[in-house]
């Protein structure tokens, strides 16, 4: 027997719809700006940003989990980036099946060139729209939802 759906209240739906619309519009605009400003795809940018934040190298599966992508999507992305010289794969000495993904000098230069402009767009489109108190509240809410999600089945 199917349980009756617990529909969102009008207030819950309004909050959800506003959040989704803001997220889609913000990510869309930031993605277009990264592409136009640096020539990198948004996927290139996120991979290089995460690698350089982690000290230039990460295990492949750790990178997959960090960006919440499917393994096959990350594999294709890394292959494309490696062909362009932005990243390289290194064998993992303690795990013959594992691999490290490493930002190459070219990849490091690409993210160093792109990041300042990207941050300027984040500031202009997002940070400047909110007060520090609102940013603090948003950070707390986001962490709370993330913690809640970790406890839920996928």
TrEMBL record:
Any single biological process term in GO: response to stress
Q: Tell me which InterPro entries the record gives.
A: HTH_MarR-typ, MarR/SlyA-like, WH-like_DNA-bd_sf, WH_DNA-bd_sf
What protein is this chain from?
A: MarR family transcriptional regulator
What's one Pfam family here? MarR_2
Q: Where is the HTH marR-type domain?
A: 1-147
The UniProt GO MF terms for this protein read: DNA-binding transcription factor activity
